Amino acid sequence: MAASSPGTIYEAIGGAEAVRRLVEAFYPKVQAHPLLSPIFPEDITPVMEKQYMFLSQFFGGPPLYTEAYGHPMMRARHLPFPITPERAEAWLACMRQALEETVEDESLRMLMLERLSGPAYHFVNQP
Question: What is the pTM of this model?
Fold first, then answer.
């Protein structure tokens, strides 16, 4: 497994443990959200593991997702799910709450949310 680069978001938030805490704080919010829960499976555990792997890589940590599944191709992987602008906003709202619970540094939270906003809206495939 490759080490993360110095000065990454991954390192700044505390590495693997911090990403795991973020994912564990995030998915109960997703499951409780009326717009999001219908597009997620009841057994959220595999989704959480993939998200952990992806976010580790996305924020500059080891390329866990690519090692396990190949290139992320996230837009293509999300095409089967009806993602509206409202669902993208709901996803980001849940992530914002999870970040507030797990990342102390406000500027780091804002940076992470900003980085996630592009992909969240890029996955929109429904009006």
Answer: 0.92
Q: Are 100 and 109 in contact (CB under 8 A)?
A: yes
Single-letter amino acid code for the residue at 43: D
Which ranges of the chain would DSSP assign to H, the alpha helix?
9-13, 15-32, 45-58, 64-69, 74-78, 85-102, 106-122
Tokens of 113: 């949310």
In a domain, 105, yes or no: yes
**Residue whose structure tokens are 């590495």:** 15
pLDDT in tens, 42-65: 999 999 999 999 999 999 999 999
- Domains contained in the chain, number: 1
Query: What is the CATH classification number for the domain harbouring 110?
Result: 1.10.490.10
Q: Find the domain containing 91 and state its range.
A: 9-122
